[in-house]
Amino acid sequence: MSPDGRRLAGEACDLWHDGIPLQRDAFSRGPIPDFLTKASRVDAPITPPVAATQEEATRTQIRGSSLLLAGRLLAVAMNFAILVLIVRYLSKADYGAFAYALSIAALGANLATFGLDRSITRFVPIYEEQGRYDKMLGTIVMVTGTILSLSLTAILLVYGLQGFLGGSLIRDERAISLLLILILLAPIQALDGLLTGMFAVISKPRAIFFRKYVLGPALRLAVVLLLILGNSGVSFLATGYVITGALSVAIYIVILFRLLREEGLLQRFSFGTMRMPAREVFAFTLPLLSSDFMYMAMNTSDVVLLGHFQGSAEVASFRAIWPAAHLNQLVMTSFALLFTPMAARLFARNDRAGINDLYWKTALWIAVLSFPIFALTFSLAEPFTVTAFGARYEDSATYLMLLSFGYYFNAALGFNGLTLKVFGKLRYIVSINALAAVVNVAVNLALIPRYGALGAAIGTTATLVAHNILKQAGLRLGTGISLFQRGDAVVYVGIAVGALFLLAVQLTVSPPFYVGFVLAAFVSLLVLGLSRKSLRTGETFPELMRFRLARLLLRE
How confident is the model at residue 3 (pLDDT cuts 50, 70, 90)? Predict the structure, then answer.
């Protein structure tokens, strides 16, 4: 395994790398927590990476993240095709029951993972570099055992409380019967995340690409095609999801053991000398769970409350369009992997100007590259929803518009939450995460009983916007990151004008979807051209300048 591979894998989720100074200000008063100064440290120092120039760091981040984004597009296309086929084939009640059960199963997987997949990518490469194979094996065994134990607990709770769930949460026998099947995905999905982290540690991106972006979606697509061709029911779909998920994890495990043997690591492991660094691992993991719990509350509370107050059909109306709205964060999640270690290195050198430049250039690229998705799911929400899911889901267009605005707003302002974590503002992050989770549940409780899926969309969107504003305020007051760099505001103005123009055309003329699609593509190119100076496209992607069209559009 190459040193660069080890460094990238080890730093991808390491927000507080050893050697990074921890600074205090209005958001981190009092002594520095022990887990940052003691528990999360390892026995030997790590040699800091070679310094890079400010512009080179930003350029590397954008280019590398764009490459990762391209790899995800294949899986997104396949998963969206799967969603469209399922929604169109199943009745609204059956899809609502399936979506309800799948959401609860995903919650169980998130709880079972307990953030420990990030500990794998943080501690395992460090212990390997130090030759501490006793702790390396102990970390793997401890994390795997914890995940399996929590998964088993979740399964037993669902089976033991199925009577209570059926009588209290949702009065739909189909949803409960599907949940009894899909809850088996909890350990499968949790192990999948753990194994992905292990492949990142041993620097095998091709294996991750094949398993995560090709094999998994392809197997699920095969299940859906068999469902339709065999005219089967929703139970067949749920069982197929479990079987294909288990098969993918089994293949993952076989490949991992083969790679560990090739790397010579299996020969170095000994259960007799194994040490489990529980204090270091859990001290690093526990403070990060507040973000996970907030998003779990946002993504699950609306489904649970809709099922309880409104029934499966309303769950279907809301969950059918949720993945499309969530696509507005596709670019953001792809850029996140390389942003964190790059920002951490700049912070270690106390290069505030470099962090400011990295933050806003990354945010601008995310905003511009996400705009075509935002245009389709916000400005063209109605024709997009009807074209993709059919006339039965026409009412869901309003929910799609609201959710798309919230998720795009969250993405377009960049990595304010990650940057706060890089600066060590954990107390502030935990506080606003807890506040957002409580407010989201409270708003949903107030709106869903009366307005159904519309209330859920309003509650989720309002929480996303408010939470992002709080993160941006913390970033400005606690780190000194500027609100905007000079000249960059024109990018956001152009995005707003473009989106509102497309929406006005849709509301007044109502052109066919293909006409709106072409118009949205044209406006997206205009936004890109308007943003060329702020994005520095010529120096970031100089190879594009060989093409005449690119030169006309992107030349500064």
Answer: very low
